[in-house]
Every structure is written in structure tokens, then in C-alpha cells.
Amino acid sequence: MDPLPEILVDRIAVNHLRKEKPGVADLLADRGIGKTERRETVHFCGLANVSSDGSVFFLPRHSKQNTGTDIQTAGLTMRTLARFGREVESRKGIARAAGDNATLAALIAELAQDLRDNGIYSERARYGSRNSGKPDWKRTIVREMPFLTAGGVAVYPETRTTRTLDSHENPLAQIQAAVLGEIIDKHSWWLEGIESRAGELRSFRQPTSPRFLWPSALRSLLPTLYANRPVFLAKTLIAYIEETSVQSEGSFVCGVEDFSTVWEHMLRKVLPGVEEGWNAKLPKPGYVRIGSGEVEISDRGMQTDIIVREGSHLTVVDAKYYGATGKGSMPGWPDIVKQLYYEMTLKTVVKSGETVSNCFAFPAGSDTGRPFSSARVFQSNLDPVEEFPTIECRYITIHSVMEAYCVGGTLDPGAE
Q1: What is the pTM of this model?
Q2: What is the mean pLDDT of residues 169-184?
Q3: Sign of the Cα pseudo-torsion (248, 252, 257, 260, in order)
């Protein structure tokens, strides 16, 4: 098993990474990952492995706690990326650069779950036997010498029979065992309940063909597979092998550059009271032609992040994966204007008696400062402009969000 990864915080300085982990820095730069050539800090969340530097994990913003729990946080993050990969990237087929994806984490998690639930794939094979199983009278009559009773009845002291046994002597089982051995070696630190299967997997016969031919072997098997489980297993193994084959020997990258997409998706899933379908109801801009007065409506209108209902009150939530600890790490004027317009526009389509407000939702750690309560528009003398709505600032504990998301739960209001 590979050693546990070293933990680094999100947005670590590029120069510091080049000094402390030059192999990892070169790997990210070679893959065009982490914006290391354009930014002063590394923009990446996930796992990077280089044989010369070992494994390094880049944590999400505000999730680092202390040395004793950081590895658990890294495991929670990998499970978060795996679920995100299943729900978003795999389903929509989002175009992505190698390594800038959560699909690989999803494939690894799905193969591990299949092993936990079903074990190594086996085929039911029928074997010839004697005196045990289903009698095969045709073979018995041909192969065995009977005794004749006094009445002339033939009695066979030995009966040829057939038995069905589970067989792992098939290419799908052999490739599955080999791949799961790889996964246990590299990923059992974040996958639950599979490390104990390592010895069992080593007992299976290895595939006779080289690894790069395994996808072709599995594709040739697909027309002969009919049950859902072997078809799913073969397709998932093909995807995993092809995803990992593009990565050079001794290196491995699995994660996302833009964790803000994950942050928004998680909040949409775990915040209580989220309502879908509002974007389709919002007004769209249009253009009036000179003379005829004909109106041409734009194809795309406003696209709110999340709308949450609590009774008759609606909140437009803008998920912001920002530091939010000082004015330099807060949303800028374009974000504020957008939120104000969202609130104003939503008020035109809600039912009578319904009220609307809006907020920014920032990630926070258990000990992170939460300095701002709201964003407002002010005069030069610092008097607030009352005509502009207030935008609330909410800090939500990122650990709580990931934990709820990974189990398909709803966020406890106490996590904010």
C-alpha cells in the first residue's frame, strides 16, 4: 500500500510548492493543471502523486484543521469528488483536461463499492463429477459398467453426474482482481472496507495480456454479457483503465482546478428548502426593432445559483468559493449588481404575499473568522443607500457540507 499523502492547503504558493515538492509542481505544470503558470497560488483540489515526491493532497479552502484530522478531511474530500463525478461529470460528459476531473474518483469509488457488495465476478460453470450432483445418465451408460441383478435389472455402482460451481477463471474476473489490487494499493486510505481484501485479490490468476490490451479484451466480452452487473463492471473497468493509462508511469492526478463548481453543486443538494425551476420563470432581455417595434427575446436569461424557500420567503443564494475574510477576498461590484438584479427580477414573478431576499454563501472552517454580516451600497459618507437591498453574508462550515453531501443528506442549520 502507498503511504498516506502529505497534506497541503488549497491555494498554496506556487514558489513554495516548487521548493518543497518540485516533482509535483512539474507534474501539474506539464499537465496544465493548477494555473501554476498564471497565478501566484496553486488552484487545485485533489490528489497528485509523483514517485520522486510521493503523494500530495490539496485540501479545499478553509477545510484544514490539524495534523491529526487532515487525512480524514482528505478522505472526505475524495469521497465528495467521487460523488460529484457520478452526479455531474459522468452524466453530462463535461469536457475536461486530464487530471482536471472528478470522474476518475467516481470510477474508483464505484469499483470499490462493487467489490464490497458483490466480490469478484464469477461465472456459473458446470463440471463433470461422480456420485454428487445432477445424474447424467447418458454419460453413465456410455462410460460405466453396470451390474445385473437376478431379475436382469442394470445397477450402476458409479453414477456420472454434473455440478455447477462458481468460476473465477474468466477474463472479466482476472482483470477486475488486478485493477482492484491497484486501487487498494493507492486508494484504500480513503475507501472504506476494501483494504482487508488485498490478500484475497492476490490469490486470483493475473490476466495473460498486458495492461494496455485489457480494454480491448473487455470490449470483446461485452456482446456475451447480458446481466446488468457484469455489463456495468466491464464498462467501468474499461473507463478506469483508459483514464489511468493516459497518466505516465509513477504519476497520478485526480481532482479539480475549480472547486467552486463543486461548492455550488453541494449547496444545491444539501441546503434545506431548495426549489428548482425558477430560472425558467424569470423574465428575459429583449431587443426592440426600429420602426416595426418587433421584439426579439434573448435565448438565455438570468441564471440564479440556488433559490431556497422557507415558508413564504425566498432567498436567492449565490454560492461563492471565496476566502471572504477581507475586502480583497470578497465578491466584487459585478457580483453585487447581479445579486441585486436577481432579487429585483424574482420579485416580479413570485406570488402575492411572498417575500424575497438574497445572500452570498461562503465556505468556512470551524475556527475560521466570519467578519462580514452583509454587503450594502454606501454613499461616500458611508451612509447606506436604502433603495438598494441588503445582501446577507452566510458562512457555512465546509466540513458539514461535504459530510451531508456524501451521504445524500440535508445540511443541519447548526452548521452555518
Answers
A1: 0.84
A2: 91
A3: positive
Domain presence at residue 189 = no
Q: What is the pLDDT of residues 48-57, one digit of tens each?
A: 888 878 889 9
Residues 285 and 368 occupy one common structural domain? yes
Question: Which residue, among 230, 243, 254, has the nearest Cα to 176 in the 3D structure?
Answer: 230
> Same domain for 105 and 243?
yes
| Domain carrying residue 289 | 259-415
Domain count, the chain: 3
- pLDDT tens, 260-280? 999 999 999 999 999 999 998
Answer yes or no: is 130 within a domain.
Answer: yes
Q: Distance between CA 45 and CA 263 in Å, rounded?
A: 12
Is 172 among the domain residues?
no
State the chain's maximal CA–CA distance in angstroms.
122
Q: 103 and 127: one domain? A: no
Same domain, 251 and 282: no
Q: Are residue 129 and residue 17 in the same domain, yes or no?
A: no
Tell which residue, 50, 3, 46, has the closest CA to residue 22: 50
DSSP character string of 29-84: HHHT-TTTTT-SB---EEEEEETTTEEEEEPPTT----HHHHHHHHHHHHHHHHHH
C-alpha cell at 398: 465546509
Same structural domain for residues 107 and 143? no
Which of 47, 46, 56, 49 lies closest to 16 in space, CA to CA?
56
| Nearest by Cα to 207 from 168, 244, 171, 245 | 171
Lookup: cell for 2: 502507498
Same domain, 134 and 247: no
Task: Let me know: does 81 contact 60? Beta carbons within 8 Å.
Answer: no
Q: Are residues 83 and 155 in the same domain?
A: no
Among 12, 47, 2, smallest CA distance to 27 is for 47
Is residue 378 a contact partner of residue 385, using CB atoms and an 8 Å limit?
yes
How far CA 108 is from CA of 116, 166, 364, in Å, comes to 13, 26, 28
- Measured between alpha carbons, how far is 339 from 361 in angstroms, rounded to an integer? 12
